[in-house]
Amino acid sequence: MRNGPIGQYLVEKNLITEEQLQQVLAKQKESKGKLFGDVITEMRFISEESFAQVLAERLNVPYCDLDSTTLIPDVVKKIPEATARKYTVIAVSKMGKRMTVATNDPINFYVFEDLRVLTGCNINPVLATKSAITKAIGKMYSEGQASAVVQEAEQELAEDEEELDLNAIDLSAERIDSAPIVKLATAIVENAYRQDTTDIHIEPFKDKTKIRIRINSDLVEMMTLSPQLHNALVTRFKILSGMNIAEKRIPQDGRMSQVIDGTTVDLRVSNLPMVYGEKVVLRILAGDGSVRKIQDLGMTDYNYQRFLDCLKVPQGVVLVTGPTGSGKSTTLYAALGEIAKPNLNVITVEDPVEKKIDNINQCQINEKAGMTFDAALRSILRQDPDIIMVGEMRDSETATIAIRAAITGHLVLSTLHTNDAASTVTRLVDMGVEAYMVATSLIGIVAQRLTKVLCDECKKPRMSTEQDNELMGIDHSIQVYDACGCPKCNGMGYKGRTAIHEILLNTPEMMELITSGARASEIQVLAREQGCLLLRDNVSKLVQAGRTSMGELVRVTYAV
């Protein structure tokens, strides 16, 4: 099958079924001209990375993971940016008269002939994903542009300060899309997105404005601006996100989107008046097409099976708990993707709707208009739902309605802010839900955290101390790793994050214990006896596997 069509090759390798292949071919026929790979990844039968790896194997072409490859600017720029974007290619390395080029279409020899004439080098193609190439092009060709845009904006300010006055310039007008302050706002979001940032902070101080970005849970300074640019920059973001630009005394919230490297990126914008001006925080939300599968969330096989057991139950409550920014919404969306079938009515109530998903009815909270969680939930119950997702159980009324919905025959998914799975039960009781209702409706609780993953290039080995062994729950010293820092991880010592989980199942014994009004500690003891691996057990395994550090174990799970 190695020489047959790629679709049959995927079936042969058990990556898709014959039925899925026929669906993809039918969709490709409808789309007229779309590549098979684009269609199958859009339908989410296989990830873009997995498809690229299989295609590379099928075509006998090396696969290149651009995210883990160090690109050299001088080599990259041997191919002009316009050509790189036109053909979706990027130069990876060059040795003498031979250049290695990453492409998502390694059999398009016309492209390689053009590149050979343009660069004067023989082209050696390697296969990479389209999104990785587009992202790398955006990152490599834009390096240094941000500082040039800042200089341009400050120069314009010096020439005519009044032009940047809020009352003297319309920053939303199309005619000034090329204005330096507009370019600066665009560059800040683009550069942050390309560094896998989750939040952008624009902070005013007496003699400067700081732009800081959150990468892997840590805030890192990206650039410093003169305070004179602050008002114009804030006004630009307020206009883009639909805020009132004349109101500077009260906090405001808004939403905007920006196209970066061919991807539409949604941002949630929050504005708060401070001593020296308005602080703006932009939360980068995942795009519409980025709902991840449960297998991609970092769950161990053991926890994955326990989670699937929860989702198979047709009625009841499944809760995902953890602090802000621990990936609760991502897990819920992944669960919805797993269980939402064409024959089911799935309705969500969220504040805000972070990811728009096909074939799921999503309801946006609007408290000013009276559209609160409890009001929305009451209406949803009259909409004949099979599955209800509640963004967050914020108060006793929402919790009670959600629990009653579960008891009356619906599957309810929701989140709650608690430290671990056991304390979630006592939190619900404290919120005013009767213990017997919690016991009757609960299917399972998933507590989760995000822990940073050590950079493989620079992590430093050492033997664990007695204190480390005690924290990991082992009786002998082993080799563990500490974060160090290198150019590949921007000196942070960590590259990326993974989730750790603690999954409590509501067994008959657990139901009895909850009904009796047990404390969280008693619930945790029984959960552990019944096979629940605690958060610390899971992060300890990551430390022992060399994937994270003891510092992360303490940060993520330490409790007095």
Question: Would you give an account of this structure?
Answer:
The protein has helices at 6-12, 18-31, 36-42, 48-59, 73-76, 81-87, 109-119, 130-142, 145-159, 180-194, 230-240, 301-311, 328-339, 373-380, 396-407, 421-430, 435-441, 466-472, 508-515, 520-529, 535-544, 550-557; strands at residues 89-95, 98-103, 122-127, 199-204, 209-215, 218-225, 252-260, 263-274, 277-285, 316-321, 346-350, 361-364, 387-390, 411-416, 442-454, 460-463, 479-482, 494-505. The protein has 560 residues and is α/β, with parallel strands linked by helices. Helix 15 packs across helix 17 and helix 16 runs antiparallel to helix 20 (520-529). It is globular. The protein starts with 5 loop residues before the first helix and ends with a helix.
Keywords:
single chain, 560 residues, alpha/beta, seven-stranded mixed sheet, six-stranded antiparallel sheet, 22 helices, 18 strands, 39% helix, 23% strand, globular
What's this model, at a glance?
This protein has helices at 6-12, 18-31, 36-42, 48-59, 73-76, 81-87, 109-119, 130-142, 145-159, 180-194, 230-240, 301-311, 328-339, 373-380, 396-407, 421-430, 435-441, 466-472, 508-515, 520-529, 535-544, 550-557, and strands at 89-95, 98-103, 122-127, 199-204, 209-215, 218-225, 252-260, 263-274, 277-285, 316-321, 346-350, 361-364, 387-390, 411-416, 442-454, 460-463, 479-482, 494-505. By secondary structure, it is α/β, with parallel strands linked by helices. It is globular and about 80 Å long.
- Which word captures the global form? globular
Structural class: alpha/beta
Residue fraction in strands: 15-25%
Which blocks of ≥5 consecutive residues have pLDDT under 50? 172-176
Radius of gyration: 26 Å
Helix content: 25-40%
First CA to last CA: what distance?
Answer: 59 Å
| Total strands | 18
Q: How are the strands ordered across the major sheet? A: 12-11-13-14-10-15-18
Distinct helical segment count: 22
Largest sheet: 7 strands, mixed
Overall mean pLDDT stands at 86
Assembly context of the chains: single chain
